[in-house]
Automatic annotation (TrEMBL):
SUPFAM superfamilies: Acetyl-CoA synthetase-like (SSF56801). The keyword ATP-binding applies. This is Long-chain fatty acid--CoA ligase. GO terms for molecular function: ATP binding; long-chain fatty acid-CoA ligase activity. Keywords: ATP-binding, Ligase, Nucleotide-binding. Pfam families: AMP-binding (PF00501), AMP-binding_C_3 (PF23562). Residues 26-462 form the AMP-dependent synthetase/ligase domain. It comes from the Bacteria. InterPro entries: AMP-binding_CS (IPR020845), AMP-dep_synth/lig_dom (IPR000873), ANL_N_sf (IPR042099).
Amino acid sequence: MSKPLFNEFSTVPSLLRHVVEHIHPPAHPFLMDKKGTEWVEISFEDTLKRADAVAAYFLEQGVVKGDRMGLMIENSPEYVYYDQGIQQIGAINVSVYPTLSEQEVAYILNDSGMKAILVGNPFLFRKVLKVAGNCRELRYIIPAFEGHEKVALPETLQAEVISFEDILRLKQQVTAAERAAIDQSRRLLLPQDVSALIYTSGTTGIPKGVMLTHSNFVENVKVCLQQIPVIDKNETFLSFLPLSHVFERTATYHVCCAQGCKIAFAQSLELLAKNMAEVRPTVMNCVPRLLERIHDKAIKSGTSAGGVKAGIFTWALETGQAYRQKKEAGHNPGLLLAAKKALAEKLVFSKIKEKTGGRLKFMISGGAALPRNVGEFFGNLGIKILEGFGLTETSPVMSVTEYHRQVYGTVGRVIPGIEIGIQDIETRQFHSIQTHETFNENFESAEGEIVVRGHCVMKGYFNKPAETAEAIDREGWFHTGDIGRFFKGNLQITDRLKNMIVNAYGKNVYPTPVENIYLKSTKIDQLFLIGDKKEYITAIVIPNRENLEEQFGLTETFFQQPETFIEDKAIQDWIAADIRKLSNELAKFERIKNFKVKRTPFSQEAGEVTPTLKVKRRVVEQKYAQAIKDMYSEPVEE
């Protein structure tokens, strides 16, 4: 395996230069993009050539180090060309979630003082055009799609519209003087310079621009590769999580830039399964929801027919579990169990793995807590799921599972070079401070707020010194707002501090672990717990649509009805049966006593969830206040 020479780079644009000098020849494929029915490969050389064209164009337009340059585009080669181009002249990447509203887009354009924005499709182009007249600093709108000329421009538009294709064509041949200017800009770039502004989606309040430096990103990549050394130069990553989010930016894009791995861009979430079969990735970053859906479909497919087929499926999972537990305990599974595992692999596991392309070494799950039973399910199949934890403000990785040491229900070992503390919520005294070096697989700590100090912590919030000072204390500790503890040496997340429910009797209820118990039910797709200052816990439940349709013979018309909540008693009883059964796994004060069945999922369009799919607690509680009030006025079973 080719080990990267980490001391040779310290800024984002130096990563790819390092690859073509030490890991791969320039003509080696780097990006994969589907054009029509074919996957097209793009070399490191061609990527750098197009990045240089972008850099030369913007230098000619007077863009200087520190200028903010926007992107509102789906994952694509164009994202990489533009980002690499602006990074090497010291400009700052401001990626905007394509799903944000016009008002939110306008806020970010103005707050950041964005000079230019790359847009990926006609819908996004129109969205930017509607707000561009009110954005003082915006000088260039750059459509990266064909046919942008057909979109009518507002008469009041001050910004210039130039297509990305025209920029690449104009600077197809970079002159010697331009090359020298680009090289000089790259040499003047410092590790502590800001590389990106990433606006927090936040479940409350106004978005804040998180300033992440080149050092934040590069150090995060270095230590992640140190913690997961099995990632080598021959990996193929399938990228589908948004590059506007820090998780995919660091854990796919920057990791691949550092290690020379190949990146294939998925066409869409809907086509992800098809793309997995075509690309046959070896590594993928994902969110728990995707893994839960794969889990649910596999269980349903394996057991719904009943009889012998279901029996074989259940036997295979039990065999896989026994084999996994032996291996994880450091024991030899023995010849008989190994033979059973080989048969289970042939009869069941291989067929599930084929749907992922059949080459996956592992997947990295982040963005939310992965239910333990889902992680164990994949482990039983022989598909390793590594969990990581972090926030936008921490670049993002603070901890990640080691490849050889899995502790389900935790988010792994502290990465090298940082400190993670567990601080008492009331007294602010430290229960524990752990580093990579202090790791002890038998160590456990009390629960408290997770705080972090070290190279991963952001430079601060853009133009918000007061908010920065509130988040990072005088000792340099960044307060995550997450509750957790150390378990078997690994970090374990309990919940968000702001999510914590304190019932009328003073009992603390952390929603996430409780919700995860109920989400074991195949009848439930989403669940939102309520109960702060109340005598008991209630919930808004979103049923699994596929199973609901199948059970009750429902059609699309049912889900288009205007009533927010389903009042059908048969459906309520159907869900209640699972809630009653799963409640036995919880303490009495954590159990759901009443619930409402919501017809449609919480959505970003309705303002109920953030772009990273976190439910906005305050919004949901206000929006459905009457339904919540009704749940506490109705009689409940004890």
